[in-house]
């Protein structure tokens, strides 16, 4: 008997029936990391709160936490934070977000830095931010219409999003300050 390798190919119809937290990438199911540690959640709240302050009055855009982004029938991602504009779909994010923020954990770092990076770049997400909780650092990438260009590493600087439908910025000093005091 030959040794056959077989991998299931799942679709969005399969995905919506699953219990627990999953992502679907090119038909392959990936279990999400267990519940994030408190630091991860706190950083998520701090960034979301700042973004929400700017987008609260913007009728075209909204800040979403852990919402499904359906790229295709066999690829569904769940970014930690997404800012979407002019997306009328009520079930999931149906178009490229303006901003995606992923807060890395050891179990998701490779997927966030490579696989999701490539997918978000291909989909032309305007800004991709990778947050490194252990380093108290964020890497900001901006899409130039062709690919992501690194804007820089941010530790305590303010980053202003200059070409969004509504003005916004993130003060990384405020995001990381609590953890610097405890070092």
In short:
The chain has 183 residues and is an alpha+beta fold.
Low-confidence spans = none
The number of E-state strands comes to 12
Number of domains: 1
The CATH homologous superfamily is named tt1808, chain A
Judged by helices, strands and strand pairing, the structural class is: alpha+beta
Structure description:
- The protein has a single domain (33-181), classed as tt1808, chain A.
- With 183 residues, the protein is an alpha+beta fold.
- Strand 4 and strand 5 (75-77) form a beta hairpin.
- The longest helix is centred in the first third of the chain and has 18 residues, at 38-55.
- It is built from four helices and twelve strands.
- The chain has helices at 12-15, 38-55, 109-122, 172-181, and strands spanning 22-25, 28-31, 61-65, 69-72, 75-77, 81-85, 99-103, 127-132, 137-143, 148-154, 158-161, 168-171.
- It is globular, with a radius of gyration of 17 Å.
- Strands 3-6-7-8-9-10 form a six-stranded mixed beta sheet, sandwiched between helices. Strands 1-2 form a two-stranded antiparallel sheet. The protein has a two-stranded antiparallel ribbon with strand order 4-5.
- The mean pLDDT is 92.
